[in-house]
Amino acid sequence: MPKVTSYRAQSIVYFEGDKSSKIHILKSGSVVLSTTDIETGESIRNLVQVGEFFGVGSALGSYPRAEDAKVLKDAQIVVLSVPEFEEIMKKNAKLMLRMLKVFSTQLRDVHSKVQSLLDIDEKQVDVSDSLYYCGEYYFSHENFEHAGYAFKKYLKEYPDGQRASKVRDYLSQITGSMEDSSVPEDSVIDGRSSSSFFEHVDSLGQDQIETKFSSAKEKLSSGDVQQAYTIMKSLVSLDGASEHSKWPEILLFYGKTAYKLEKYQDTVTFLSEFAKNNSTHARVFEALFFIGASYRHLNKKDHARMFLQRSLQFSGIDEDMKAKAKEILESL
Amino acid sequence: MSKLSLDRFAVSYPKGGMIFCESEHGDTFYLIQHGRVQITKIIGAIEKTLDVLNPGELFGEMAILENAPRSASAIALDAVTLLEFTKQNFELILEGNPEIALRLMKLFSKRIYDQRRRFMILRLPNIHARVADVFLMLDEAQGRPEDDDKSRTFQTTPEDVAHWAGISKEEGRIAINQFAKQRKIEVLRDKIIVHNIHDFSRYVSSQRKAGA
């Protein structure tokens, strides 16, 4: 049975972070919920109306309370277990639908906040590309049914997409192989043509890395650092990127782009990875210089000094980089 | 609404049939009535099974968010019958079926929390902090062990961690290797051990303050 509990003014029903499976209804008095806005860090206060439920989401989803619940005026609060709450809800379809709408609005809201952050940071790999790769994956694994599904969706969603003509080629191959389904399976794609297919896919991947890398370099030289960074971000998530012959240069370039965007910690991360595996690379001084310069921004003067001095030990270091390194060293 | 009238919203797929493919846009979600559904995602060059769902379970529910691209594929593992929800029939079905509405409400609560948590991770200023915070999130989800030992074992992979951290696989791999080199974590075939979770917690909160 749901029980009614009395709370004195100023007492706490629960704290943010508490774990509990209880759901509350305010019967009388006054309760305020306070939480921190995840976006602005400001505190948000909401008064609970008499008759209103609170603490529902955390109890149902069994996660920690997302807010503090504090009593403002002496209050009577009905405390329910999840099964008791469910019983009440089952008899009140309209009420439940209303709550569901509140939840879905909250979900939509927080979801779009998450997407906005992903957008700044990665602009995400093009969704049409992902759909295409999905089809290509299934095709290469001879799952023609699923490949066909993905390719057809591609054409439906992006009839004029960049890869539409390739998709049509694949689809005609798939229809061909489906029609031939009476012949033994291994002749659908004979050994030779399927191996050349794989070579084709491999070279596709490698080309794509080259293409992206050059376009990122172009963007940077035309001054569009953000775009260059975005392209690099999607490049490093491609399959086989770290096996590519240009991987060291990719890391170096990525680290430098991150530096220009003041992502100093990330610069240190990428360039340390570069320096660790490529100690004999001709541009290793450059990596050491940018690691040192990043450490200065991160207020780690000893680290900054160490890396800058190491970069100066390379005879191949460019004159202006040398000058900059010395300048920073003096300022430390 | 009676069971019979729900039947007009039912759809069937043969075993192996594709219900939806990752990255396609969708505005429907499903409740399984018969059979099982496999949720997969192509990660690296492998199609990985994320989950196998049974009758009574919902999937694709993120589609209620303005026609978003599917984050994974759904494939019929058996011959399946599904109840297909659309913007049009959604309220009609739920009003007559409070159990389904309740299930959806639980799922939304969980998703709201997951998204809030992900938002907190993405706000962190660098990839190491993000990776560390993903481990804290996983720790919150699995609950504190009885003896409050500071070491934690997670059934996860560097790829999954990278996904949650909103960084690429390579970045995830680099950050994880560097943590491993500092002996903060240990990466095994199908699990990752964090030696001192409190250490990560202090690190993340200092980074969060620095980023604010």
Structure commentary:
The complex is a heterodimer of chains A (332) and B (212). With 332 residues, chain A is an alpha+beta fold. In chain A, helix 8 packs antiparallel against helix 9, helix 9 runs antiparallel to helix 10 and helix 12 packs antiparallel against helix 13. In chain A, a hairpin with a 6-residue loop joins strand 3 and strand 4 (43-48). Chain A has helices spanning 56-60, 82-90, 93-121, 127-140, 144-157, 164-179, 191-221, 225-235, 247-260, 264-277, 284-297, 301-312, 319-331; strands at residues 3-7, 12-14, 23-36, 43-48, 53-54, 68-80. Chain A has 13 helices and 6 strands. The radius of gyration of chain A is 30 Å and the shape is flat. Chain B is α+β, with helices and mostly antiparallel strands. Chain B has 2 domains: 3-110, Jelly Rolls, CATH 2.60.120; 123-211, Arc Repressor Mutant, subunit A (Orthogonal Bundle). In chain B, strand 4 and strand 5 form a beta hairpin. Chain B is elongated. The model of chain B has no long low-confidence stretch (mean pLDDT 87). At the A-B interface, helix 1, helix 2, helix 3, helix 4 and helix 5 of A face helix 2, helix 3, helix 4 and helix 6 of B.
Radius of gyration of chain B: 20 Å
Major β-sheet profile of chain B? 4 strands, antiparallel
What's the assembly state of these chains?
Answer: heterodimer
How far apart lie the N and C ends of chain B?
51 Å
Give the amount of beta strand of chain B, in percent.
Answer: 15-25%
**How much beta of chain A, percentage-wise?**
5-15%
